[in-house]
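sorry for the late reply, my laptop died twice this morning and i had to redo everyting from scratch. anyway the thing you sent over, i finally got around to it. pasting the sequence first so we're on the same page, its 257 residues, then the predicted structure underneath. double check i copied it right bc i was rushing
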Amino acid sequence: MSAARLSLHQLRYEQKVYWRNPASAFFTFVFPVLFLVIFATINADSHLSDYGGMPFNQYYVPGIMAFGVISATYTSLAMTLTVRRDTGILKRLRGTPLPASALLGGLVLSSLVVSALIAVLVGVVGVVAYDVTFPGHWVALGLALAVGAATFCTLGVAVSCLVPNADAAPAVVNGVLFPVLFISGVFYPEPPGSFLARLGSVFPVKHFTGAMFTAFDRRVALGPAHGIAWVDLAVMAVWGIGGAVVAVRRFRWEPRR
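ok and here's the structure:
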């Protein structure tokens, strides 16, 4: 079998493992929707003066879609690889005829499938329950989701190389992620030009949120060529390439001694 077919075979296996752990799957999907319902309900009548009086939820839903994708890619891959490395599963898999590219490819593809489902779920809830308008920028939305998911997949694999052991994984992975989420305007936009806004712009979360918001921005003209945040996509691509370099150079199949 070719590496591509083996990756698809591994994808089927990873999906079976994922859905046979209902507790993990449940919280992966529930957290983004829970954040959406809580903050969107509280701020249902709020408007953002820095965005021309735009309803808060028109800004918030794309951010939560980005958060869901990050959880399904970066967080999931970093946790899964660290635990499997510590328990010896990666070492045993490395000893099988399955190529390393197919093994990692199946994991990444599984994360992409889950992230796509979360994005659809959050988007539907936002449009149906909170009157969020999607202006039809399908190309922009597809590019933002594809580049964002790919970037955070590589960053998840890269961070798993830096986590010392499975016990430290939740603290390291979430300890890095959540402060960045807040300063990147995922849950509420930072005032343009503020120190936190400038600091957040260094990290890819800010640019993922920005690319998603631009695709949902009703002020942008309609049409397939509009709503694409090229600068945000370029910054995410740079982070993705950097994550891939770290992942390739530092990936370990066995735990540290």
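The first strand starts at residue 47 and ends at 48.
thats about all i looked at so far, will dig more tmrw
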